[in-house]
Design goal:
The complex is a heterodimer of chains A (104) and B (281). Chain A is an all-alpha fold and 104 residues long. Chain A has one domain (10-93). Chain A contains 7 helices and no strands. Chain A has helices at 10-18, 22-25, 28-38, 43-50, 54-60, 67-75, 85-94. The radius of gyration of chain A is 14 Å and the shape is globular. Chain B has one domain: 3-Layer(aba) Sandwich (Protocatechuate 4,5-dioxygenase, Chain B), CATH 3.40.830.10. Chain B contains 10 helices and 10 strands. The radius of gyration of chain B is 17 Å and the shape is globular. Chain B has helices at 15-18, 25-44, 85-88, 99-111, 126-135, 158-175, 204-216, 219-225, 228-233, 242-251, and strands at 3-10, 49-55, 69-72, 76-79, 93-96, 116-119, 143-148, 181-187, 258-265, 270-277. Chain B has an 8-stranded mixed β-sheet, with helices on both faces. Classes of the chains: A mainly alpha (104), B alpha/beta (281).
Chain lengths: 104, 281
């Protein structure tokens, strides 16, 4: 079902709050371990964050809309075109599940 | 009795200000021209205030039991929020709010039984920052932002969206001060799937079908055919932002919309388009 998620999952709380606080999203990758501890992420969630494994995070219950934001928190938001590090990390996680665009 | 002088709806994809240069040149030209035309059409109606409806993107509304709508009733707004500035390639802007209009809409919505509240502390992302960049480049027209829960189930149904549009229209006409010129605009969509395997594509066939449906101006047909399931089939996580377009359609009284532009842009990861309602009843 589209948009289904677990609102109690710590990763969802982390994403919701971090985006709202420049002290938390600035240099996110460098303070990710501290933030994962602060928000009480499980070991499984932490492992997925470290690998930027958005597919697994989605399976755990992270809201789908938040998944690209995971890649942006880790890899940065600027110039988020299809060749950006964030977009490529997303593509890597989905692997051959990715549906390529076909112009009609 | 206040007057609804403009009703329109348009996409707010972040790439439109964030990385448009990465799109093919013909897409860049068409997208810019489309938004600029929307801006010209809006400004020509000389609105005193903008009432906007757009997805909150789970940025402000609580993860659990969010309201369907939150009316922003601050006197001043700033956007985009810091996290979104590099993403949108925007340094930031300020735009006035209009608390009296916001509070009137919120009170009317509550009285009508809508699941709605009001707040002064909303953060903005692409929902307002992309459209306002083109609609009001000098940010000189006060904004009443209505944040909508478009992606946190259960989202408001198409029927609730239409009812909300009707309440907004009735309130503007019956409750707001005489001679106030109000423009209503919805932002979001068209097809896109942030969070799924179709993140890098879109459903152009669906988008054109939806815009054609708006052009028919038949609310009953819209409710029957443009279901949440149909929208999610065209792209989960984002396409249900078109519920906001249904609010706009109802504000216009279900009259036919005119499609201004459409570009199915893979680099924008979204169908980018805009519609206006020339006749407002």
């Amino acid at each position: 079902m589209a948009n289904e998620f677990d609102p109690d999952l710590p990763s969802n709380h982390l994403i919701f709050e971090v985006r709202r606080d420049s002290k938390q999203f600035t240099g996110f990758a460098d303070q990710m371990e501290d933030l994962m501890e602060r928000y009480g992420l499980s070991e499984e969630e932490r492992a997925a964050w470290r690998e930027v494994d958005v597919v697994t995070l989605g399976e755990m219950g992270v809201h789908p809309y938040f998944l690209p934001q995971v890649t942006r928190l880790v890899h940065g938001s600027a110039g988020n075109n299809s060749k950006s590090n964030a977009a490529q990390a997303y593509k890597k996680s989905f692997g051959d599940q990715i549906v390529e665009h076909k112009k009609i | 009795m206040a007057e609804i002088v403009s009703v329109m709806a348009m996409a707010h994809a972040p790439g439109v200000t964030g990385w448009l240069e990465a799109a093919p040149v013909e897409e860049q030209v068409a997208i810019k021209a489309g938004y600029e035309e929307m801006g010209e059409l809006l400004r020509a109606t000389k609105p005193d205030v903008l009432v906007g409806i757009a997805n909150d993107h789970m940025l402000n509304l609580p993860l659990k039991n969010p309201p369907d709508f939150t009316v922003g009733n601050a006197a001043d707004w700033e956007g985009p929020a810091e996290f979104f500035k590099p993403w949108l390639a925007q340094d930031g802007y300020k735009v006035a709010g209009q608390p009296d209009v916001a509070n009137c809409l919120a009170q009317a919505g509550e009285a009508a039984g809508l699941k709605l509240n009001s707040r002064e502390d909303l953060l903005f992302d692409d929902n307002w920052s992309v459209p306002l960049f083109y609609l009001t480049p000098d940010y000189s027209i006060p904004l009443v932002p209505i944040h909508m829960n478009c992606i946190n189930p259960p989202v408001p149904s198409p029927e609730v969206s239409v009812r909300t549009g009707q309440v907004i229209a009735e309130t503007i006409r019956n409750e707001l001060p005489d001679d106030l010129r109000v423009a209503v605009f919805a932002t979001g969509g068209l097809s896109h799937e942030p969070g799924g395997p179709r993140y890098f594509t879109l459903d152009e066939k669906f988008d054109r079908w939806f815009m054609d449906l708006l052009a028919e101006g038949d609310i009953d047909k819209m409710l029957k055919e443009a279901t949440i399931e149909r929208m999610n089939a065209a792209g989960g996580g984002g396409t249900t932002e078109l519920l906001a377009w249904m609010v706009a359609m109802a504000v216009a009284g279900g009259t036919p919309a005119r499609s201004i532009f459409y570009v199915g842009s893979a680099e924008m990861r979204c169908g980018i388009g805009g519609s206006v309602w020339d006749a407002i009843h």
